[in-house]
Amino acid sequence: MAAVTAHDATRALSSSTLTVKLGRPRGEPDQPLNEPLVMASTYVAGGDLEYGRYGNQTWRAFEDVVGALEGGRALSFASGMAAIATVLDLVAPGETVVAPRHCYQGTLAHLATLAQRDGIKVVAVDVDDTAQVQAALVDDVALLWLESPTNPALEVADIATLCHSAHGVGARVVVDNTFATPLVQRPLTLGADVVVHSGTKYISGHSDVMIGLVVTSDDEIYGAVDGARRTRGAIPGTLEAWLALRGLRTLHLRVERAHANAAALVARLDEHPAVERVRYPGFGAIIAVEVAGGAAAADLFTRSTSLWVHATSLGGVESSLERRRRWAGEPRTIPESLVRLSVGIEDVEDLWHDLSGALDQTLG
Ligand SMILES: *Cc1c(COP(=O)(O)O)cnc(C)c1O
Q1: Which residue in 60, 195, 204, 258 is a FRET match for 268, CA 20 to 30 A apart?
Q2: Contacts of 17 (CB under 8 A, 6+ apart)
Q3: Residues in Cβ contact with 72 at an 8 Å cutoff, skipping those fewer than 6 apart
Q4: 72 has pLDDT over 80
């Protein structure tokens, strides 16, 4: 019988177990169970870290877990946008990027900057319309950028089909997997070349950290992204990486509870007279509702909750909501009355009581 190596044993474990098990010091006497917070700007020469901008043991522990969950190698960054900008900056001047019409507004803003500065051509598509995206994938396209579900319109892309089409014209595919998390969707296994995350959201999960990630199994891309991180220095703080890993340990529990809460709330929101439309892709913990009565009613709704926090961002243990069009950078095709709900892990009856009470206010 062939010996089972430690590596094989690890590969057979489920993602919940990997989330808890990986990224820890060697299990030797008197080693701590958790990777310590390593505060270091420099290291004794001769190893593979050398300098604090090039690497850090605490980042590595965090990166090892995210890399294993996504099925690639991860590099952490100072924020989701630092990770996203680093990947987008690999596009050469004059090249074409196909990107979602609706996606994280920071991504859209950076693409607009690249269009102006480097003459990059950006072709906007509705990512839930597979034929439309395929039609945009012509020979000179260098990159297909996907976000699925999209923020905040919650459109879902057929990642596997679109990766196949993109590769057919020689384009690379990046997927922003922030909303789904690697527990729900693993884009690298569906053919994507790169995954990016705002680790600020579900991965950290407690609204107290900013961090980002790039994950890839392509050695050339990994090298380019690592090189850019070394020279541009958009590195995470050590404490941030430590907190993010601590939060990540419970990702599966938080996601399970938040998804169950979201599904229960969607059914009730659908019935509420103050709600014109509910968007929910059938998974995840983000819901978008369009409130009857336009922006004013939506603003009243967001001001009228007491348990739900009126705040931007998402993916924390606490439920929060905001009207996205209050931001000038949000695309004009996002309805004025759209309120994005980030469902947390509180008791669902408490959440519904507060939410339905606030919706009732808008009926006057
Ligand atoms: C928040 C967010 C980002 C940006 O991440 P930061 O950590 O805020 O820089 C990128 N993509 C999506 C989908 C997000 O929700």
Answers
A1: 204
A2: none
A3: 188, 195, 215, 216, 217
A4: yes
SS3 state at 113: helix
Whether 96 shows a pLDDT value over 90: the answer reads yes
pLDDT of residue 12: 77
Please answer whether residues 127 and 161 qualify as being in contact, where contact means their C-beta atoms are separated by less than 8 angstroms: no
Across the chain, mean pLDDT equals 96
By the 8 A CB rule, do 55 and 49 touch? yes
Specify the fold of 15-248: Aspartate Aminotransferase; domain 2 (3.40.640)
Q: Domain boundaries in the chain?
A: 15-248, 251-361
Ligand 1 neighbourhood includes 176 CB (under 6 angstroms): yes
| Burial of residue 245 (number of CB atoms within 10 Å: 0-12, 13-18, 19+) | buried
Which CATH class, in words, describes the domain spanning 251-361? alpha beta
Q: What is the pLDDT of residue 9?
A: 55
Atom of ligand 1 lying closest to residue 81 CA: 9
CA distance linking residue 294 with residue 299, whole number of Å:
9
Q: What are phi and psi of 14, to 5 degrees?
A: -75, 165
Tell which atom from ligand 1 comes closest to the C-alpha of 178.
13
End-to-end CA distance of the chain: 74
316 lines ligand 1 (CB under 6 A): no
Alpha-carbon torsion angle 360, 295, 80, 134, nearest 10: 110
Whether the predicted pLDDT of 183 surpasses 50:
yes
Lowest-confidence segment of 6-15, 282-291, 351-360 by average pLDDT: 6-15
